[in-house]
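thread: overnight batch results

M.L. [08:02]
morning all. the overnight job finished for the chain we discussed friday. pasting input first so we're all looking at the same thing
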Amino acid sequence: MRLSTPRVPVLEDSEASEEQRALLATSGSDTTAKAVNIFRTLVHYPKLMKRWMVFANHVLFKSSLNSRDRELLILRIGWLCQAEYEWAQHVVIGRKAGLEDDEIANIKLGADAPGWSSFDQLLLRATDELHHDAFISTATWQGLEQKYSREQLMDVIFTVGNYTVVSMALNTLGVQLDQGLKGF
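M.L. [08:03]
and the structure it wrote out:
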């Protein structure tokens, strides 16, 4: 973790307003008691959290990408941004989406690691290019176009973009790992 203590602490139930409790209850958790640290941190700013959640829910649950490809992108950008919280959360989600442990380890190495399909290499390269240059090269784009629709190509960009912003927030706010999660 970049910070050993949070700059913005998680909001405890006893401190939450009615609006904050309602947001925590709808943040993907069954009850506010189960809300994870990212939501317990962001809920300090309810208006921002509400608006971001609409976009984040599209990326995570309504995207045109299959879940394995989406998690490959998220884990790669989480690694590139050194967002340990993001990495830890999405290792769990990535496994559920079908990523194997050796693939998760190879995400850290990038597109040139052994064992990737040519399309997985393109997804990893696209993530690297967006991270380093804010642009997907023509060669990578054309490769992705061989399999992906326009909507899927756009979802690649917005998935990497959303999780870049999330990584920045997690790192800077000092969001700590939830209990039971393993970081880098």
